[in-house]
Amino acid sequence: MKNTQGNWSIIAGSVLFLCSLFALNWQPDRSKFIFITLFYTFAFVAYIFLIRRSNRVSFKNLAIIALLGQLVSMIYEPNLSIDYYRFIWDGEITLDGINPFDYKPDDLLKQYSSSAYMQEVYSGLGAQSSGNYSCYPTINQFYFLLSTFFTNSVASSAFVMKLSILITEIVGAIYLHKLLLHFKIHENRMWMLYLNPLWIIECTGNVHFEGVMVSFIFVSFYFIFTNRILLGGVLFALAIQVKLIPLLLLPFFFRYLGLWKSSLFYSLSVGLAVLLGFVYLDGGNIDHFRQSLLLYFKVFEFNSFILYNYIQYGRLTRDYSPIFKFGPQLSRLALFFIMVLSLWGDLPTWKIVLRRMMFGFFIYLLLSGTLHPWYVIPMLAISIFTNYSFPMVWSYLIFFSYFFYQVGNGSSFEVRFMVTIEYVILLTFVFIEIYRKGSLLKYFRMNHYLQPSAVS
What we know:
This protein has 456 residues and is mainly α. The chain is built from 22 helices and no strands.
């Protein structure tokens, strides 16, 4: 009788999970904060329920639930982000022989004035995107090109993009599974990521490429930690050329691999990443790429806590907005802490290396000026190998940043109050877990999935 009740509860949890994901992908207006928050909460509660009971469900059935969640997120065009219009734009102009780093979309508007399709894509870009050069590296551009190669339809291109992301994520999941077995960590640990609503909604649903980047990182990690440095370096270079954020992980390999192996790894991964960069970049447009990147440090501010309050302090002592100065300052501070974290302490084991990588991402995010929900996905992915749960908690809290789209003013009292609540809860979890060495995982019933040798 108990088994029957348990089976029905798992079925009910799975149905709630999938229906909530469907509702989130179906809702066409990201300004409907209450609707979005309600169904994201339902999805997250179902997610916690499923991972708490994952030892009662077969690995195959959990994989089916995760895959169904991905398929549900492929039905509609992205509705919580407009970034995919820029991805399609870059892919289409590349097909026309135009380098996306040479021109802003605004510069090409007249050239495409006779194309209703390109006018539709342009109208979806938004002012920030249409007025700036592309900032997406070569492998990312390859996905854009692939998604636009077969069709001249926004909906079809978005679907191809989602499909290519999903296929890459499946490859990443296969190698993550191999890596968990290599480390003697319970295989069900991977569902902390692959059933997480943030992962499914933002990567497949909203076609953000953190899922692709993380997948390349998992494959790279598998080869690195099984002592196949050359293959690991190649895959790590591909991860860098999806998103530049893996560069933050490079310092952590130095002491773990030793001088000779780390030199080989750095030469291959960085060298190949640079070579791939020159597929699009040259002396005439590399400054365009740099300008676009600097926007995230000197101009943009979204869902930040430390930078926003630092700016308010600066305005008390200056008669202008100091974001262009304070943003880079905090970025340099984050880099300093990451370097200290990577070089500090005894010679690291794989457990220590991965734990420090997770905290390195956390430091970087905490000091960032722009923090969209999908930005925390790399930290969440690395946390699989640790006994800390605060990245999972943040993957829920950060979705409240969508409140901005209802209010439309990032400096309003309501938005700043919501952001403050997010960070107060998060930092409380962080401090408690650091003090107790991750013991809050027991409340999610996930700590038993780590073998004793992996918990320290």
